[in-house]
Design brief:
Elements: H1 13-19, H2 25-46, H3 48-51, H4 58-76, H5 90-115, H6 122-143, H7 145-159, H8 175-184, H9 192-213, H10 216-228, H11 234-250, H12 253-271, H13 275-287, H14 298-307, H15 311-340, H16 353-360, H17 364-375, H18 381-395, H19 405-439, H20 441-452, H21 457-474, H22 477-487, H23 489-494, H24 499-512, H25 521-530, H26 534-545, H27 551-557, H28 567-589, E1 591-592, E2 594-595, H29 598-610, H30 616-642
Antiparallel strand pairs: 1-2
Helix pairs in contact: 2-4, 2-9, 2-19, 4-5, 4-19, 5-6, 6-7, 6-8, 6-19, 7-19, 8-19, 9-12, 9-18, 9-19, 10-11, 10-16, 11-12, 11-13, 11-15, 12-13, 12-25, 13-25, 13-26, 14-15, 14-22, 14-24, 15-28, 17-18, 19-25, 20-21, 21-22, 21-24, 22-24, 24-27, 25-26, 28-29, 28-30, 29-30
């Protein structure tokens, strides 16, 4: 589906800024709120209160920022699409004031909240209830009903646990405790998601925005087109390549999305991809960065400690599965581009690489500065992004778009505007995470799924994958990995799986939780940047990454893919896996040179799956069948191309 035929999401910020917030006091109020969001986030990243030796909790930052985000959100987002062209109604001013009030209460009273943590205080109960209602309404306005229903399901489970049968039943949690916990606890709204969004994500968003204002977006667009423009779906392929390279260094899905997505998502949309597809491609590509050696995040170092092996052994074992992940994603993107008819550009439209580098080489300096700060002097990601931002401003004087005070103000305002959606997402995701933590649902799911496995190794792996994804929704990858490494890895090893494979299996699915609904952080970030519905983007991401969910089941039973075999077996098994995944990808996309019929899709899909089975009596015939079917489909596609009639 091309962008022209795609249904754009409601409440497009650009549309709203030209209608609902056009001029007058409401525009000035909105700009004041967005500027305040950026300046306070900047203060949080720079830790200004520490520099000034002022006693200040980071949760006070979060409370103030939530208040500003809620207020700005109700001013910008209409209650229904038809109201986008009308002035802001009185009820939205009232809701904006209420949103600001609940945030200011946390900002002013946080010290007392800490002193009386756990107490059910009436005023906080009603403010907590109001906050939950405001978050749900803002989520509905910004992203539609699906995410609201997901949040309501978790809330109702916590309050009515007593009506659930069996292990999932339990003592009901009073609604007063639920809303107090959501509103004031550091495992909910005031927890790690807020810290990531208002810190790292903000810093990278502002860096990306400044790079775009300085002309870096044009440079990287031209650079990407010169490298991949002649290929179908080129911008999406650039997303995969750029995300894998940056992910090799960062190991962070969220920062990967905001750094590469700021460039690749607009490119994909302009190339004809649906907004949700662009977000999905970027999120799936970026999430693989946590799997790509040499830097795979803190979890890989913990894994080496658990296994009592040198870190380089973890890197070696993780390399081929990571390459298979990106191979399947790249392959599906290519096939989808062919199915949608997204052809390459004409030679006259592709700029020369040398000319592009000569005109904008200096835009590579901020990226070099970012990498230097992150991996040489080990500065925090958020501060590294700000250093790179300063470098962007400096190198802009070498080009045509020099930074002026007006451009700096515009960057702050636009970043604050982007942070409205990010703040709403932080609130709804924090609420869901908090309720999962309060009810113990994440750990309960993991324990029960492992119990259900019985003596089946495959079922144990399947249930462990589900448990890892569910836990990954409610906690960071590292925490999810550590818990399952303790309670699940020993059982997997007892079923005959080597320790390295068992731990990589758990780690793999913990990372994939970043793109698995309902709490899929990478999807949320990418969808916000693409102005797409998160759940729609999540659905497309799951389709795009469905083959990636098969990769761990393959390497668990095939140690050659973990390089624990002679070199010729490693190469042979890797090529065999690529062929199997090619067959599955063709079956899923229904395209290879030309559209593939349903019977042929079914045949090559089954053959591709069987080619991944570790039993040689099944594997070898399946590989031969897959290769033969690929050849037949290729020949039919060539014939169709030569004679379309």
């Amino acid at each position: 589906m091309t962008e022209s035929s795609a249904q754009t999401p409601p409440n497009d910020p650009e549309e709203l800024s030209s209608n609902r917030l056009t001029k007058g006091p409401v525009l000035l109020l909105f700009q004041a709120l967005t500027l305040a969001i950026s300046l306070i986030c900047l203060s949080f990243v720079l830790d200004i209160t520490f520099i000034l030796e002022v006693a200040f909790f980071q949760e006070q930052y979060f409370g103030l920022l939530y208040g500003l985000v809620f207020a700005a959100g109700f001013l910008r987002l209409p209650a229904y699409p038809g109201a986008a062209d009308r002035p802001v109604p009185i009820y939205d001013y009232v809701l904006a004031a209420a949103g600001l009030a609940v945030g200011l209460y946390l900002f002013v009273n946080w010290a007392d909240i800490v002193m009386r943590a756990g107490f059910i205080i009436p005023e906080r109960t009603y403010l907590g209830l109001l906050t939950v209602v405001l978050i749900l309404e803002l989520t509905r306005r910004a992203f539609g009903w699906p995410l609201v229903f997901v949040a309501l399901a978790f809330i109702l489970y916590a309050i009515y646990r007593n009506v659930f049968p069996g292990a999932f039943g339990g003592r009901a949690i009073p609604w007063q405790r639920v809303v107090n916990f959501v509103y004031t606890d550091t495992e909910a709204l005031m927890g790690i998601i807020a810290s990531v969004v208002f810190g790292m994500v903000f810093a990278f968003l502002m860096f990306g925005r400044a790079l775009f204002v300085a002309g870096g977006g044009t440079f990287f667009t031209d650079l990407s087109i010169s490298a991949m423009g002649h290929r179908r779906g080129g911008p999406a392929k650039v997303s995969v390549i750029a995300s894998s390279i940056f992910g090799t260094l960062s190991g962070s899905a969220s920062s990967n999305v905001v750094v590469t997505g700021a460039i690749t998502i607009p490119m994909m949309i302009r190339a004809g991809y649906h907004r949700a597809s662009a977000a999905a491609i970027e999120a799936v590509s970026s999430s693989g960065g946590g799997l790509m050696p040499p830097v795979m995040g803190a979890t890989a170092f913990i894994m080496a400690e658990f296994l009592a092996v040198p870190y380089h052994e973890v890197v070696v074992a993780a390399l081929l599965p990571a390459l298979l992940y990106y191979f399947t994603v790249f392959l599906q993107i290519d096939l989808e581009a062919g199915k949608l008819g997204l052809r390459g550009l004409a030679p006259s439209e592709i700029p020369r690489l040398v000319a592009v580098l000569k005109a904008g080489w200096f835009f590579l300096v901020p990226l070099a500065a970012l990498i230097y700060c992150l991996f040489v002097i080990f500065l925090s990601p958020s501060k590294s992004a700000l250093v790179a931002l300063v470098v962007v401003v400096a190198v802009s004087f070498l080009g045509a778009n020099r930074f002026t005070p007006r451009q700096i103000l515009s960057t702050l305002l636009n970043t604050g505007n982007l942070m409205i959606e990010m703040g709403i997402l932080a609130a709804i995701a924090g609420m869901i995470v908090g309720i999962i933590s309060l009810s113990g649902l994440g750990l309960l799911f993991g324990q029960q799924l492992l119990t259900l496995a019985g003596g089946s190794a495959f079922l144990l792996l399947l249930l462990t994958a589900v448990a890892s994804i569910i836990m990954g929704m409610s906690m960071p990858v590292t925490a999810s990995y550590v818990i399952l490494a303790v309670i699940a890895a020993p059982a997997i090893e007892q079923a005959g799986v080597p320790a390295m494979a068992a731990h990589l299996f758990i780690f793999y699915f913990a990372v994939l939780s970043f793109i698995t609904p309902p709490v899929c952080v990478a999807i949320f970030v990418a969808a916000t940047m693409a102005r797409a519905r998160p759940m729609q983007a999540a659905g497309r991401a799951m389709l795009l990454a469905v083959v990636a969910f098969v990769v761990p089941f393959v390497f668990v039973h095939d140690q050659a893919l973990l390089m624990d075999a002679p070199w010729y077996m490693v190469i042979g098994e890797f090529l065999a896996a690529c062929l199997g995944f090619l067959g599955i990808s063709v079956a899923l996309q229904g395209f290879f040179m030309a559209r593939v019929s349903w019977p042929m899709r079914g045949a090559i899909g089954v053959a591709g799956l069987l080619a991944l089975v570790p039993v040689m009596s099944v594997k070898l015939p399946a590989l031969a069948a897959t290769a033969a079917l690929v050849g037949v489909i290729y020949a039919l596609g060539r014939r169709h191309a030569a004679d379309p009639a």
